[in-house]
Amino acid sequence: MSTPNLHPGLNLGTRHGAAHEGAETIVFGFWIFLMSDLVIFGLVFASYLTVANPMGMAGGPGPADAFDLRSVFIQTMILLTSSLTFGFATLAMRHEHGRRAIAVWLGVSLLLGLGFLVMELRDFAHMIEVGAVPQRSGFWSAFWGLVPLHGLHVAIGCLWIVVMLVQMAVLGLIPVVKTRLLRLGLFWHFLDLIWVAIFSIVYLGGLMP
Amino acid sequence: MKFRHLSRIVSLAGCLALSACSGTQDTFLLPGGPIAAAQRAELIKILGWTMIAILPVFMLVPVFLWRYRYRNRNARYTPDWDRSWLLEVLMWGVPLVIVAVLSTQLYRTTHALDPYKPIASDNPPLRVEVVGLDWKWLFIYPDLGIATVNELAIPEKTSVALDLTTDTVMQSFMIPALAGQIYAMPGMRTKLHLLADAPGRFEGENTQFNGTGFPAQKFQAIAMTQAAFDAWVAKVRAGGQPLTSDSYAVVAEASTGAEAQKRLDAQTLPAGVIHFATVEDDLFKTVLHRYMHGTPVPPSAQPGAIGYDPQAATGEQDR
Amino acid sequence: MSNAILGRLDLSSLSIWRAIENPTGSELIGAGAAMLVIVGGLAAVILLTWFRLWKPLWRDWLTSVDHKRIGIMYCALALIMLARGVIEGALMRTQQAFGLHGGFLAPDHFSELFSTHGTIMIFFVAMPFIAGVINYVMPLQIGARDMAFPVMNQISLGLTATGAALVMISLVLGEFSTGGWANYPPYTGGDFQPGPGPDYWIWAIVLAGIGTTLSGINFAVTIYKERAPGMDFLRMPIFCWTVICTSIIMVFALPPLTVAALMLAADRYLDFHFFTNDLGGNMMNYVNLFWLFGHPEVYLLVIPCYGIFSEVISTFSGKRIYGYMSMVYATMSIAVLSFCVWLHHFFTMGQSASINVAFGIASMAIAVPTGIKVYNWMATLFRGRVRMTVPMIYATGFFYLFVVGGLTGVMLANPVISFQVHNTLFLVAHFHNVIIPGVLFGLLAGYHYWFPKAFGFRLHEGWGRAAALLWIAGFSFTFLPLYWLGLQGMPRRSVTFSDPAFQPMMWLALFGAALIVSALGCIAVQLWISIRKRDQLAVPLGDPWNGRSLEWSIPAPPPAYNFAVLPQVCARDDFAEAKADGRAYRAPGQYEDIEMPDNTAIGMIVCVCATLLGLALVFWIWWLAILSFAAMILALIGRTFRVNARHVIPAAEIAAEHRAWLARIEAAPAVDRLEETHERNLGRAVLEQPGRLEAAQ
Q1: CATH no. for C53-600+645-690
Q2: Mean pLDDT of the B171-180 span
Q3: What residue spans of C533-673 are helical by DSSP H?
Q4: Lowest mean pLDDT among A18-32, A82-96, C330-344
Q5: Residue C489 in contact with residue C424, Cβ under 8 Å?
Q6: Partner C contacted by A138 (CB < 8 A)
Q7: Please, which pLDDT band fits residue A5 given cuts at 50, 70 and 90?
Q8: What is the torsion angle, in degrees rounded to the nearest 10, for the CA atoms of residue C49, residue C52, residue C58 and residue C61?
Q9: Could you tell me which of B58, B266, B294, C410 has the fewest CB atoms within 10 Å of its CB?
Q10: How many beta carbons lie within 10 A of that of residue C157, not counting itself?
Q11: A55 Cβ under 8 Å from any chain B Cβ
Q12: ω before A105 within 30° of 0 (cis)?
């Protein structure tokens, strides 16, 4: 079945032929997967909120003792920028600027993703230093269940970018590679969205007086 | 009327089922207090209302299956008939009306029978604090300064206000003939109110599975006249032992009531029952707050856990 | 306790060794079950080697990405696990029948039994059976060549098999959880159950759960995107509508289970405090998360069975389904409402009366659309021509018993009653009363209904009737007495009881359990006899029941590509309309090449790696966990480099096969419904005329 209106999201346009048509089913399926993943994040958020109180903290350190807002703000900027650069990669694919342009933008996004992870790991190290470990309280268990889960997703995203860079080199820009890049793009932007929620609810919310 | 008729059948059947056992009431079909009685009335009411929707199915299915059997040459056959406005309205309308009626009923009774709501009675209410342990119940009478294991004596026609928690895994406390159940959870306090209309013995139990001794976690709730209750209190005060942190640590160990009774040398009492003449101050609060201190409770100090050690637990509590 | 190579696995992990050291009756039963698993496995290996079936098994089944074969494998898995689940249930009934102050099972063994019984029946019988039927039937009904993602479909099957394998292995190595199928902490936390039991539950559930989520995505996308031309949403068979609802539930309701189980794992493995007693843990979060999955789950199970009953009742009444639109609305509203009622599983947790009221009313509201469905099926019987075949016997049992389950459901939806009967045998009776007549009868009806389509021959009718009647009687004798015991206040999960008044009902229930075991025996015998008599039961032409939807318009068993030419759908019940208009069985103007996906071993690789991963995690064998996980990820990434893994079936070959089949149709006798279960029924039906029967003849 081919309908003129594809699902919402990133489209390639009809001149991409098979990749455009393949996206119909494949990207739609990925949207559904993301919805399922969103439910997971929603539930972990909800669990976090139920213990973000003195009882959940059980006399242990609180957000103010362990969060470094400056570092988190920089992480936010890095991740948002990486979304922008990934957007450029998608546009480069859509407008057929060639494999090189796509690879460069993907590489930039990868570096930004890795930078984000390095900074996040440094924050985690600091938290461990001040005793904000998951073994300490229900609150920190929930925090370590939520924020590193996002970090794990970013790490998976980085691995995926590497795989796509290799596939672009080995297989070329064949339709299946294109639809995979579309899905990776959705994934990458989705992680941004989750991060915005983490930044506002966990970090800003936690540090609010 | 229909409902009253049904209710008579239900109680009759309940009596039959119970005729074999001792004088202990263990079902809300033979209620011993207003809560259980209201719950039984609710059950019968639902049974009656839902019959309006269910009886047509019971009666018409065999009729249709017989009348429209393949070999019946006289029945009409309309393979393309697939809608009728009248039927549609009936099919959606009748269940909707029934559910609406039952919903208003549910709204009223759920609020009226809220276990957190005190029950009105002429006598001053009795407070009891309940600690669920593996596999027994500890009842503390804070205003009387006594405590028991597996024996809940209450005066008749008196509202009993129970505060519940556990010092181990989650449990669920129920005396079916008096009131429904409520969960007891570590570090949390739940409430239940009940009232017995007349003297009697009622079986109480834990319904939430909590390990090998689970089926033995039963106790007797004994409703008595005020005079008998006072005598019972005096008896507990005279014959019971003190409930100290040491003896509590032993009671708290994973064991059935009978085993704990043996450990504390109280075998003269009915099986599984222990009486305590005095109770260390605020034991219930201590139990409740153990999990809120912000210090870890290691298995050695956690009643019910594998590796629980009463001695270590006592040290822990003293700290 | 734990070493670097074998983790915490040692000699005493072997249940057979435990029985040698401590030969009590209970341990011996455990060891016997372990022997059964080992002997069964060995027998399978020997038989496969003896008959040289390894190669065909690998080539035609294990590496197949054909939705039909995957569906059949799901059903086979479910039937094997059903045997174990039924035996466990019968064992529990026997224990309780002798359970007045005693019995023959140790309490821990009994607890393991109710935990594995529940886990197996829900996750490894009902779910795979449903996934199997959906896999087989849905693409045929919407006129598709395969699932949207055939390889992912195979991986889903692999992960489901992994979970089932872990539960089976727990009979031999270590022990299973004793915390019931819901596995509530803190009882299942590290402090109270440090052994491998709850870990088996966690990894079996998580791995199989991921598979189910992927299945849900696959089913949804297939229906949304792969329908044949002209197959509008409102022309789909009701079964496909129920599949949409179920796949929505799969996608949205499985995540809470995964989250709850993984949080429990974090508590047990890494000393987190999500659900612990101390340091700010909160077990109520687990209870909420679990039932946020658990309630939609029961609708996930029963909704497709509503679909099966819709197909069965309409076909065997020779009529359109009554109230198609009502059915669609009702199914959809059940699916949506199923997410709004989870709290009724714990009205007794101490929340305010107003919250209980809200969830109580929402729960009761589900009775409305469910009632509509029952009435619609009755209206479908009305003025039909009903044949009491095996699926219809199941449907009749369903009508009666399911309605009783609905009645007690309305009772349980009322907090006031729930306070009394929660956690008692009343509850046990209730959920068996919806799941056996609703889900299992539906699936068994579907099994009889679609078996001829899948294998080209019908199942033996007599043995099927015996099985169906035994199931209905067995269910009634086993579970209706439990309602009474529950009203008498007997808690569920009691290995023993002390009230002699319970005894007679317990014996009645044991009698029922014996009937259920014989029902299962009848199903096994029926399969055996049907295979032996397959020539007399053959229906190669594909339409043994005068079917109404597209799956009956193709040969039985269907070719790998399903449809020689994708059908052009013009109406609801398109095949029935086509037969009436004379459009059916027409040769198309031209045939085209068909491209189909190649076989792949990736599903098996994932299955083996995930099983090893699960075992390694249960027994703390960290090196194996890392190795198997890495191998799985590498295999999946490696697989993505294999593009164009498709082969072409040439048009000429398809044309030859299709024309040969059409010629056989032409030559074959069309039988009427009196001869439906007769040898003469080769799968071509004569047209039923409306009006009175004598007029038609």
Answers
A1: 1.20.210.10
A2: 96
A3: 574-581, 602-618, 622-640, 651-667
A4: A18-32
A5: yes
A6: yes
A7: low
A8: -110
A9: B58
A10: 30
A11: yes
A12: no
**CA pseudo-torsion sign C54, C146, C302, C290:** positive
Percent of chain C beyond pLDDT 90? 91
Alpha-carbon distance B63 to nearest alpha carbon in chain C (angstroms): 9
Going by C-alpha positions, the residue among C685, C391, C683, C687 that lies closest to residue C558 is C683
Question: In the predicted model, what is the mean pLDDT of residues C191-210?
Answer: 96
Angle ∠(C377,C379,C380) on CA atoms, nearest 5: 60
Find chain A residues with C-beta within 8 A of B293's C-beta: 58-59
| Token pair of C556 as six digits | 């039985």
**Integer Cα distance of B134 and B214 in angstroms:** 8
What backbone phi and psi angles, to 5 degrees, belong to C68? -70, -45
Residues counted in chain A: 209
Taking CA atoms, C295 is separated from C182, C454, C465, in Å, by 12, 32, 32
| Residue boundaries of the structural domains of chain A | 15-54+68-207
Torsion of CA C465, C467, C468, C469, to 10 degrees: 80
Instruction: Give the Cβ contact number of residue B222 at 10 Å.
Output: 18
Residues of C at the A interface, defined by Cβ within 8 angstroms: 148-149, 213, 216-218, 220-221, 224-227, 229, 251-252, 254-256, 258-259, 263, 266-267, 270-274, 276, 278-282, 285, 289, 292, 637, 640-641, 643
CA distance C185 to C44: 38
* Cα-trace Rg, chain C: 25
Tokens, residue C135: 């896999």
| Cβ under 8 Å to B: C residues 256-295 | 277-280, 283-284
Tell me the C-alpha distance between C687 and C576, whole Å. Answer: 9
Nearest-CB residue to C489 (from B26, B38, B213): B26
Q: Which tokens in the block code for residue C69? A: 């074969």
d(CA C453, CA C541): 9
Domains and CATH numbers, chain B: 2-15+30-75+82-112 (no CATH), 126-318 (2.60.40.420)
Q: Between C108, C352, C375, which is nearest B212 by CB?
A: C108
